[in-house]
Design brief:
Helix content: 55-70%
Shape: elongated
Structural class: mainly alpha
CATH topology of the largest domain: Tetracycline Repressor, domain 2
Number of helices: 9
Number of domains: 2
Radius of gyration: 22 Å
CATH architecture of the largest domain: Orthogonal Bundle
Length: about 230
């Protein structure tokens, strides 16, 4: 009788699974104890990994904290790119983006809470730079998608840095309270209403007048100087 030997698991897959298990365990420890108070020993106990394995994959506890943060932002960035790919309708695109955000929050509740709770003040300067870089890429991607709508007069022209805050700020504020049970409104309902609010507040078809901002906008350069008072 021919015995088939089991196929060895690919080493790269093992490494990826071990890294993921360390991140998942660290997430639980950070949420329970806080980043500063959590210890490598607690992460070892929660993950089943040795301290040597943890240091091999990440180098330090701080590196784990920043990896959790940045990789969460990167996952969201991928979802946003998928949501707006080929999307030529401002309203439909906003709805897809906001649904993507709340869908990710629902599937990754602890991770989402971590992203919302962690303040960059807790991170070292190089780590803050990594977070800022991830946020910058997402902002630039959204602004690039929005630019044609401004040029066609379908989107209110304002300083470009305001668009992501108007789109995502209310959503993240709601999610922070929803995740800890302070708000009982369902996420699909919230997504629908926040998307409508973003569309009404930003889209010229929503009834808002187009105002030219003195700050830098899609339409052009530096703000005009105010006339000096005589």
């Amino acid at each position: 009788m021919l015995l088939l030997m089991p196929i060895p698991v690919n080493r790269r897959q093992q490494t990826s699974e071990r890294r993921r298990s360390i991140l998942d365990a660290s997430l639980r420890c950070f949420l329970h104890h806080g980043i500063e108070a959590a210890t490598i020993e607690q992460i070892c106990d929660a993950s089943g990994a040795s301290s040597g394995s943890i240091y091999h994959h990440f180098g330090s506890k701080g590196a784990i904290a920043i990896a959790l943060y940045v990789e969460g932002l990167q996952e969201l960035d991928v979802l946003y790119r998928q949501a707006i790919a080929g999307q030529t309708s401002l309203e439909a695109g906003l709805r897809r983006v906001i649904r993507s955000y709340f869908g990710w929050v629902d599937r990754n509740r602890d991770w989402a809470l971590y992203l919302l709770r962690v303040a960059t003040a807790e991170l070292a300067a190089p780590d803050v730079e990594a977070v800022n870089e991830s946020n910058r890429r997402t902002r630039e991607m959204m602004i690039e998608w929005l630019r044609p709508f401004v040029q066609r007069g379908e989107l209110i022209d304002m300083p470009e840095g305001l668009y992501p805050s108007i789109i995502f700020g209310p959503c993240s504020h709601f999610a922070r309270h929803w995740l800890v049970g302070r708000i009982s409104v369902g996420l699909p309902t919230a997504a629908r209403h926040f998307a409508t609010a973003a569309w009404v507040s930003l889209g010229t078809a929503g009834g808002m007048p187009i105002r030219k901002s003195r700050a830098r906008s899609f339409a052009g350069g530096a703000p005009a100087k105010a006339n000096a008072r005589r």
